[in-house]
Amino acid sequence: MRLVKTLLGCILTGLGVLLSAAFYDRYWRWRDCFNDLGRCYDPVSQNVYLEQAGIVWGGLAVIFLLAGLALLWRPRRHPRRIY
Fold first, then answer.
1. Range list of H helices, the chain
2. pTM
3. Is residue 78 part of a domain?
4. Of 79, 72, 66, 31, whose CA–CA distance to 51 is shortest?
5. Is residue 82, in this structure, part of any structural domain at all?
6. Which residues, in sequence order, are CB contacts of 26 under 8 Å at separation 6+?
7. Fewer beta carbons within 10 Å, N or C terminal of the chain?
8. Is the residue at 7 inside a domain?
9. Beta-bridge partners for 41
10. Higher model confidence: residue 79 or residue 72?
11. pLDDT tens, position by position, 6-48
């Protein structure tokens, strides 16, 4: 059971890191460019970035990181010795 929790924790933490990279790429780099409608146009790549993407990608990143780290971090329990 410990192996399953550790593996699932690593997967969730990895997904959290991946979503954090998406948050940086889709919102954080463009945070000063958004207009009053919440849009930012990049003329070089011809992409339109939305301000709402920050809430979505950031929220998912936090949820997955917290879930993964909660599974990975657990206090070590020492077995009780019965004499």
1. 2-26, 52-72
2. 0.79
3. no
4. 31
5. no
6. 49, 53, 54, 57
7. C
8. yes
9. 48
10. 72
11. 999 999 999 999 999 999 999 999 999 999 999 999 999 999 9
Give the chain's domain count.
Answer: 1
**CA 10 to CA 17: how far, in whole Å?**
10
Domain limits for position 26: 2-72
Instruction: Give the pLDDT band (50/70/90) at residue 76.
Output: low
* Cα–Cα distance list, 79 to 11, 13, 75, 76 (Å): 28, 28, 13, 10
State the pLDDT at residue 2.
83
Count Cβ atoms below 10 Å from residue 33 Cβ, excluding itself. 12
Tokens of 54: 């920050």
- Structure tokens given for 4: 């399953």
Whether the Cβ atoms of residue 57 and residue 21 lie closer than 8 Å to each other:
no
The answer to whether residue 14 is domain-embedded is yes
Using alpha carbons, select from 3, 17, 21, 26 the residue that is nearest to residue 63. Answer: 17
